[in-house]
Amino acid sequence: MHSSSLRDCKAWQSEGLLLSTSSNEACKMYDAVLTQYVSWCNDKSLGGLEGCISKMQAADPSFVMGHVIANGLELIGTGRSVLLDKGLASAVQKTVELSKTQAVTERERLHAFAVEMFAKGCFPKACNLWETILQDYPTDMLALKFAHDSYFYMGYQPQMRDCVARVLPHWKPHMPLYGYLKGMYAFGLVETNLYDRAEKMAEEGLSLNPGDAWSVHSIAHVHEMRAEVERGLKFMEQTENNWKGCDMLACHNYWHWALYHIEKGEYEAALTIFDNQISQSLHSSGAMLDMVDACSMLYRLQMEGVNVGDRWKEVVKFTKPHAEDHVLVFNDLHFLMSSLGAKEEETTRRVMVSLQERVKAPGENYQHALGQDLGLPMCEALVEFDNGNYSRTVELLHPIQYQIKGIGGSDAQRDIFSQLLIHAALKSEDKSHQKLARGLLVERDAFRPNSPLTDRLIRRATAMHGLG
Fold this sequence. Notes:
Elements: H1 9-14, H2 24-39, H3 48-59, H4 64-76, H5 86-101, H6 106-119, H7 123-136, H8 141-154, H9 157-167, H10 180-191, H11 195-208, H12 213-225, H13 229-243, H14 250-264, H15 267-285, H16 288-303, H17 311-319, H18 329-341, H19 345-360, H20 366-386, H21 390-397, H22 411-427, H23 431-447, H24 452-465
């Protein structure tokens, strides 16, 4: 990205997206922050995301959309909770106050209100506000990206697809960031099982921008969901040089690469990716996505019977400080995997007790309300499985099997809980659970044929219980 191509006050106004500031530098840095967010890359030539946010705020400390994007990104990263972090809560409140006391557009006011709603955990209300903005301003990429990410956090798969579909006709190829829409739309198509269309859309994105890590990510999902292991491995290897520099997403793409190896039973290859990429990325970034990837991968390997050594002890150092955040149920579950894996009973207790407290009076907080019927039984299932209480694990997970998508994340990420239910049912001494395991495996094989992992589990079921 060249600073000369960044949009100033006049450029934003000419695109119908007026920014209420007289500072061209603030407008350009807003563009730089937005571009890095959409492209998943810290541009070191500009000082990265943090550097650009600092320059933007220095150029105009009262720039409302500057506060919106800075605090919105902090919130959407889910690494800080306004309930525990007074500094973040204060920054969100300042954003709202600035939007009310300054002469800003209605679009900017709605943006500030949406950030406030997201901070309070009112994710559906925040999405409604971003959708309201997009009705009148379909080329407002910030509103689109925030909505897209929030739908992801709620497991709202059709909405994630359709929020992009609705605005696509209003975008033209010459517009900045146009190409990235293809990868965003492709991901929504993947998550609604439209794999052929998803692959085609992501390929269009890569033809416009070979370095689009999100389009790569969407194709990685296509291969994962179809159990096209060899195609997936080849694709990741061929494109690696294009996306490995996208530091905000590279770790997750390596996670997908490792999943293909786990699918094949190539555990050493998966652990090599964990050690060389995922663990190193976690240590350098401390990012929430890197944390959940590390937890998910080690837990999958452990279910496969792989000894992961002391790796949990390293991972839990990063997750432990977040034990009582409860920003996302999805995050809580992964934090719990790490504390169980590291045998840190006190951290496990903190996660469970604080979650039980939060869900008692969730108010309008979407995730806390989710914790009552979904979060707690799923967390309890992890604890029971760890304690060897396999029948109890099945009793907790099986009734909510089809509600689990509500915790958000992707189908590929949530597959860990499908695998957990199968493993628990296989290990349970209850005959009905053993039959359930067979049924779950038949169901899995029907939806995702030719999966080596499913074949392994079917062979295990036959060996353990003689289920033909």
